[in-house]
Amino acid sequence: MKLIILITSNIENGFDVAMRWQEAGAPGVTVLKSVGLHSLQRKIMRDSLEVPLHVASSMTSTMAYVLREMDHTNHVLLSVAPKELVPTLLDEARTVMGDLLEPNHGVAFVVPLDEAIGVRQPESGDG
């Protein structure tokens, strides 16, 4: 089994990739909202945010405050799938996102798993 991870700031396309992965046979797809640290730092610097004094005591507390207050700008897609399915899932991501080597198209990577406990088998149809 492999863990396929796709991170994209194009939220609409991220959801489309998730649906395509499901249709292609991925046993499950998890979509998480996230924000990149670089985006968070830029927002703090660019917007000159008014942060409550008790929060502004450190950069860490300021960033935590801003993170709670701002919209998440990325989607992180996760899927644990059989290794044979990985090329298909990556092709689906490229079909929607375009060439992932291009800036702002997303980042994808595949991680080998020693064990995957509780992952349903694609052919079983179990929920």
H-E string: EHEHHEHE
Q: Report the average pLDDT across residues.
A: 81
CATH topology: Alpha-Beta Plaits
- Compute the number of helices: 4
Helix content: 25-40%
Offer a quick outline of the entry.
Helices cover 37% and strands 20% of the residues.
Task: Note the main attributes of this structure.
20% strand, four-stranded antiparallel sheet, 4 helices, elongated, 127 residues, alpha+beta, Alpha-Beta Plaits, 37% helix
Summarize the topology.
Elements: E1 2-8, H1 11-23, E2 30-34, H2 37-47, H3 59-69, E3 74-81, H4 86-97, E4 107-112
Antiparallel strand pairs: 1-3, 1-4, 2-3
Can you characterise this structure?
The protein has 127 residues and is α+β, with helices and mostly antiparallel strands. The chain has one domain (2-112): Alpha-Beta Plaits (2-Layer Sandwich), CATH 3.30.70. 37% of the residues lie in helices and 20% in strands. The chain is built from four helices and four strands, in the order βαβααβαβ. It has a four-stranded antiparallel beta sheet with strand order 2-3-1-4, covered by helices on one side. α1 packs antiparallel against α4. The two termini are 18 Å apart.
